[in-house]
Amino acid sequence: MDRFLTIGEVSRRSGVAASALRFYEARGLIASEPRGGAGQRRFARSVLRLIAFIVFAQRIGLTLDEIQAELARLPPGRAPSVRDWSRLSAPWRTRIDQRIAELERLRDGLTQCIGCGCLSLERCRFANPGDRAASRGAGPRYWLERAPAAGRKTG
Amino acid sequence: MDRFLTIGEVSRRSGVAASALRFYEARGLIASEPRGGAGQRRFARSVLRLIAFIVFAQRIGLTLDEIQAELARLPPGRAPSVRDWSRLSAPWRTRIDQRIAELERLRDGLTQCIGCGCLSLERCRFANPGDRAASRGAGPRYWLERAPAAGRKTG
DNA sequence: CCTTGACTTAAAGTTAACTTGAACTCCTAC
DNA sequence: GTAGGAGTTCAAGTTAACTTTAAGTCAAGG
What we know:
Two copies of one chain form a homodimer.
Chain A lengths: L3 E2 L1 H8 L3 H10 L15 E2 L1 H15 L3 H8 L10 H33 L18 H4 L19
Antiparallel strand pairs in A: 1-2
The structure holds a DNA duplex.
């Protein structure tokens, strides 16, 4: 059992493509140790935990930018502790809960709005609460916690 | 109250940008009536319901391709009925429930895995059920119902 | 007559998160 | 000594879902 892992090993163990790992390294999300003789990357085992964290966060809906900002809050120098990791991930619970709430809201809209056939942006009480849609331009975004980012959705 | 709506009116009422509406029309998701004298689009009011459906579906996590495939199942010729709409949207409930289940699984992983500090792809029972990760390359994807689409996440 | 505002088109640009390709270096095995 | 496999770099390509830009039409108001 070697002290360091090659990019291929990390890829196999994490399920993340080697090209993605290089991409993460270039972006500064993960770091590798000083290269060996042949100029190949050597990763400390702790990188696996880091990658798990990244994949986790992505799946929750964070962008790599956001993840990077989170990681920047880890203590520099020493290896992150239990407390460090959970401090980072605690707020995600809120985010997950919000997204779940939105999905439940959407599911309700499905039943009560599309299901009832009233899916009209002008008259439906779901699509148009308080009859303000036409003036506020709310439209179907009533169900949405926030506007989708341009060109890309998450959650 | 006019019989038809201009693109600006549709945009204001739906909350969807005019450029997006043109884009949807070019893709064949929505259709406009024969143009008026000045060559401007004229939309039937029913397009608002269609747009609501699209926004709804998008937010649930369907791509425009998927939405287009769904819409293709609407009866051709006549205006869609209550039954038509709800037949389309019924399977979404399953999809929403799956995504909610995934998020709950992620939330549990957050508590039991990151929270406990064991977030290791090699040892953690969440990341590595049955110690098969190293051979199967399961990694953090244990929590994931399906692999994220390349370059883009949804849900 | 001139400006303003709403519309038109087609083509190119944007963003995220990668992937792919081309050209190259090393080490190991046969 | 050469073929294979794993690694390297850098640049360019990919996909989704739009947005932006440039250049033009048309009607109404002052």
